[in-house]
Amino acid sequence: KMESSKRIVSTKTVGKKRINDQKWSYPFLLPAVLAVCAIVVIPFVIGIYYSFTKWDGISVSTFVGLENFKRILSDKEFMHSLWFTIKFSVVTVALINLVGLGLALIVTKGFRGSTILRTVFFMPNLIGGLILGFIWQFVFVKAFSAIGTAVGIEALNGWLSTPTTGFWGMVLMVVWQYAGYIMVIYVAFLQGVDESLLEAASLDGASEWQQMLQIKLPMIRPAFTISLFMSLSFCFKIYDQNLALTSGGPFKSTTMVAMDIVNTAFSQREMGLAQAKGMVFFLILTIISVTQVFLSSRKEVEV
């Protein structure tokens, strides 16, 4: 009885100490909470209000109710940019994850120089979006034209001058930039796969392909959830790469939603309408992201 009572007292003492430690942590969290509120929460709430107003960014705003959202439904340029963004995101997300997983499988083979390859594959992600866009613009416009002229392939001339080639130019650039980042996520999960399972499968006669399909891929399903979410949100919100590479051309055929919103706000000076477009875009992206995470997480539980 004496020992049990001492254990109860010691447990209570530890519990009280933890509570006191947590109380001391709150003042240190306060600056971060205030920063998030000032930068994210408050502007978001104010933006919701401005989406129901007519405002040019200078004069006093006028409340117009749902008028901005009605205009969005009849805005052909916004609808085209939304459809282009969806097509671009579906193709790019698939390629980013395929290439990222392939690179991760290569660099986890354990051969000499694999660490250097990881650095090389990750480096494009460190380049800023505007600089990256101008680099690839030079590649598509100058280098492709020079190669096309030299070898006699007319398709390489004027690569960014058509909607189709502009679309694939954007895809190639973003996959090259972001695949290395996604590779790092897959590498982290592949290194966590239990080697004893792979050795047992090898002793049972399973090939490397069978080991990957039956052991590695099921065990790294959380990596797919994370990678799909991050690449999806990244591709939907692209602006600077779109601006530097094509500027939405030719004839606004490669304008993505982020660029359309910025043009509405600063070129047309319709801040209220731009904010309404931003709210619609936010809702669409939230629905898609939540659905993707829910479906991917459900497969993880089944495993």
- Over the alpha carbons, how many angstroms does the gyration radius reach? 26 Å
Residue-averaged pLDDT, rounded? Answer: 85
- The SSE order reads HEEHHHHHHHHHHH
Classify the helix fraction into a percent range.
over 70%
How far is the first residue's CA from the last residue's CA? Answer: 46 Å
Count of alpha and pi helical runs: 12
Total strand segments: 2
Sheet having the most strands: 2 strands, antiparallel
| Low-pLDDT sequence parts | 5-9
Residue fraction in strands: under 5%
Secondary structure elements and pairings:
Elements: H1 2-50, E1 53-54, E2 62-63, H2 67-73, H3 76-107, H4 114-122, H5 129-151, H6 163-190, H7 195-203, H8 208-219, H9 221-236, H10 240-245, H11 257-267, H12 271-302
Antiparallel strand pairs: 1-2
Describe the overall structure.
The structure is a single chain. With about 300 residues, the chain is an all-alpha fold. About 75% of the residues lie in helices and about 0% in strands. It is built from 12 helices and 2 strands; from the N terminus they run αββααααααααααα. It has helices at about 1-50, 65-75, 75-105, 115-120, 130-150, 165-190, 195-205, 210-220, 220-235, 240-245, 255-265, 270-300, and strands spanning about 55, 60-65. The protein has a two-stranded antiparallel sheet with strand order 1-2. A hairpin with a 7-residue loop joins β1 (about 55) and β2. The longest helix has about 50 residues, at about 1-50. About 25% of the residues are buried.
Structural key phrases:
mainly alpha, 12 helices, two-stranded antiparallel ribbon
